[in-house]
């Protein structure tokens, strides 16, 4: 198997769990999650549906995975209050291909009263493909 390439079976054996989500998050996936010592990791097993016309994983897929992961990190840091993206900055560092597993991890760099500042990356194997930062706005919980 090439670096970063995985199968559903190998992901399950490594402790990853496939999630079914609603809305746009379901369209970008399926999304995989795994609990780790310092939080959660998120991932997508790149398939043909994730590719651009050149045959590489589309930058929009990478940005969507990063935004989903970083908002989940902010949500956890904000006491599980909803968070929305105010700013998202990304740098594409390498190309990803079909069959590779894209792992996204992030961390909070600063927590203010209404904002969460965070950074993170997406990698496949040992190769970092995207690095980014985000500012998330903590929203009030919806009324019951």
UniProtKB/TrEMBL annotation:
Q: What class of enzyme is it?
A: hydrolase
Task: Please name the Gene3D superfamilies in this protein's record.
Answer: Hotdog Thioesterase
Entry EC number(s): 3.1.2.-
Superkingdom to which the source organism belongs: Bacteria
In terms of SUPFAM superfamilies, this protein maps to: Thioesterase/thiol ester dehydrase-isomerase (SSF54637)
Q: Enumerate the GO terms in the molecular function aspect.
A: hydrolase activity
UniProt keywords, alphabetically: Hydrolase
Q: Does Metal-binding appear among the keywords?
A: no
Task: Give start and end of each Thioesterase domain.
Answer: 55-125
Matches recorded under Pfam families: 4HBT
Name by which UniProt lists this protein: PaaI family thioesterase
Specify the species: Variovorax dokdonensis
């Amino acid at each position: 198997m090439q670096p970063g390439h995985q199968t559903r079976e190998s992901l399950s054996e490594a402790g990853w769990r496939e999630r079914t989500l609603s809305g746009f998050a379901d369209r970008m996936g399926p999304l995989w999650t795994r609990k780790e010592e310092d939080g959660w990791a998120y991932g997508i097993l790149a398939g043909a549906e994730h590719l651009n016309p050149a045959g590489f994983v589309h930058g929009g897929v990478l940005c969507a995975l990063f935004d989903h992961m970083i908002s989940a990190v902010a949500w956890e840091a904000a006491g599980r209050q909803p968070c929305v993206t105010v700013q998202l900055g990304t740098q594409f560092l390498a190309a990803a291909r079909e069959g590779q597993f894209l792992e996204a991890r992030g961390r909070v760099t600063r927590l203010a009263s209404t904002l969460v500042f965070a950074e993170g990356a997406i990698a496949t194997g040992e190769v970092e493909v995207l690095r980014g930062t985000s500012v998330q706005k903590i929203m009030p919980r919806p009324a019951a």
